[in-house]
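Hi there, hope your week has been kind to you so far. Do you reckon you could talk me through the fold, stretch by stretch? I've dropped the whole record in just underneath, so have a look:
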Amino acid sequence: MTLVSATVALLEADLSGRAQLADLIGAQVPQSWPPDLYERAAMKFALQLLQDPAEQGWSFWYLLTQSPPEAEVFGICGFKGRPDDAGSVEIAYSVLSQFRNQGYASEAVSRLVLWAFSHQNVKQVTAETLPHLRQSIRVLEKNGFIFTGPGSEHGVVRYAVQRPDRR
């Protein structure tokens, strides 16, 4: 799997259509694109955030099955902005339905958590999901996240993983 950090150019291409995204990222983009939860409003919000170069990496990451040119874009994961003052950052992810249950989401979350913890100011990575989305919860649990209680919206639950203690 290859993760490609979103840029202004990639997001603009994505908003322009699958063909433009495919040309710029160098991979096939399935007809079913985009994945759940990553519609135009989310893309526009990420595009707005990326106007600040300090947001690079703290936004979306495109998930590709392998390295271009044989690759296929199959999902998006990423952060909902830079870490807060307490060192907490929230992660989100979504994979096209035809790519689910193949370990892709678990690997993507693992790699982004490692990337986040490579920044000294990050102490915790959180994620929110609906309690009935067992596959999403399983992805989090495989990556060491533990249930911490209610999320930021009604009916949502929060999970978190702490930076490993390195004494």
Summary: The mean pLDDT is 93.
